[in-house]
Design brief:
By secondary structure, this protein is mainly α. 78% of the residues lie in helices and 0% in strands.
Length: 266
């Protein structure tokens, strides 16, 4: 039975990570072939760093991801504080359920509904070009919020509820007690939520497709437009860099979360 479970786990990992391994391997291929590995080369990385169009799309993607993650982290943390402070458990449960709707909705439903909302508001305001960077930013913040709230809420449950009271007994105002005591306890959850929001925004395609304007293009949209013609191997190199970056962020998030859990246990 143990052998069978190990084989099953190995099979799952192969199915999950074999496509990524092939992508990373062929990003170092010297030729354009996606079926035959000729020889090891950094050719496509060199071409990637000399492509202004790709770097513009990368810059747009990073700006959108960082902005939406920062805004969602601030709003989501504030929402988690408010939900945690609620006394009525029924209202608290209802609001917690409502905040999860954007996370459970299919991306295409969220994307179409956001697009219709923006077009409707643009029609009321007589705006000619409705969809732009700002509509994408609002859409990304919307689907990132539940993940931030879900990351922060467990930290409030783990925190000793008497700590803020003790801080206020020692002369702190409620605001000072939050920044000096509560914030340090929930900080690992905030960092985890921020990293998750950043990575989700970084690779989003469906919602971005419906809310993007013609003047702002992200990497997923650029790669999708390439599939109609040909995906060049420099995209493999770019995808490899993104994979390594996200992996590093996830490792950092897990390390900080583990340290926070150890402090809470002590």
């Amino acid at each position: 039975m143990k052998t069978l479970s190990k084989v099953f786990i190995a099979l799952v990992f192969v199915i999950m990570y074999a496509p990524l391994a092939v992508l990373i391997l062929f990003s170092f291929n010297s030729s354009k072939s996606t079926g035959v590995f000729s020889e090891f080369s950094f050719r496509w990385y060199a071409e990637l760093f000399s492509s202004p169009e790709t770097f513009l799309a990368l810059r747009n993607t990073l700006i959108l991801a960082a902005s939406s993650a920062a805004i969602a982290t601030v709003i989501g943390t504030g929402a988690a504080i408010g939900i945690n402070a609620m006394k009525n458990k029924y209202v608290k449960g209802a609001i917690s359920s409502v905040t999860n709707i954007p996370m459970m909705n299919p991306d295409i439903v969220t994307g179409i509904s956001m697009m219709l909302l923006f077009v409707f508001i643009g029609g009321l305001l007589s705006v000619t070009e409705v969809l732009s960077f700002w509509t994408m930013l609002i859409a990304h913040v919307t689907f990132n919020l539940p993940y931030v709230i879900l990351s922060v809420m467990p930290k409030f449950r783990q925190m000793d509820k008497h700590l803020p009271e003790a801080a206020m007994d020692l002369g702190c105002t409620p605001l000072q007690a939050f920044f000096k005591v509560e914030l340090h306890s929930i900080l690992p959850g905030i960092i985890t939520g921020a990293v998750m929001a950043f990575t989700l925004s970084l690779d989003d395609f469906v919602i971005s497709y419906f809310t993007a304007g013609s003047s702002f293009q992200t990497l997923p949209l650029m790669i999708y437009s390439m599939t109609k013609k040909e995906v060049t191997p420099d995209m493999y190199a770019l995808s490899t860099i993104i994979i390594v970056t996200i992996l590093a962020l996830l490792i950092l998030s897990n390390v900080l979360g583990a340290k926070g859990d150890k402090k809470a246990t002590r």
